[in-house]
Amino acid sequence: MKLNNSTIKQVIVDPATLGSKLRLCGVRPYYEYVDGRRTDNLLGHTYTVTCSGFAGDRMDVKIPGKQLLDTDALDRLVRFSGLAVSIYPSYVKGQHGIDAVCLKATATGVSVIDG
Fold it and tell me: Is 88 exposed, middle or buried (0-12, 13-18, 19+ CB in 10 A)?
């Protein structure tokens, strides 16, 4: 099967792909963009974790709404609720081909699991 711009968004990735140990290494807000420009409208927070399933590579997980964990949770293992992982294409600027297939993740909640 060959994926196109419409069907690539339908691919669902098992969250277990990220691994069993997700270590929090950053928290930052994300904002709404209108016509390519950032607004002051805060949409939620991005939690950056290292993924044991990808040899420690980092992954951003967006959670809409208020901040759920603070800097005291950095370098701790976390668990996401309502975690959904999908893929999207990355294009080479000025060309028609796909440069890479990337992962993106969203969740509804996050909590520290190692004490």
Answer: middle
| Length of the chain as a residue count | 115
How many alpha carbons lie under 13 Å from residue 13 in its C-beta half-sphere? 20
Name the E strands within 22-108.
22-34, 37-51, 57-64, 77-81, 84-91, 98-106
7 vs 85: CA distance, rounded Å: 15
- Encode 9-25: b = buried (16+ Cβ within 10 Å), e = exposed: eeeeeebeebbeebbbe
pTM of the model: 0.87
pLDDT band at 18 (very low <50, low <70, confident <90, very high): very high
As a whole number of angstroms, the distance between CA 19 and CA 115 comes to 19
The residues, any chain, with a CB within 8 Å of residue 95's CB and separated by 6 or more, are none
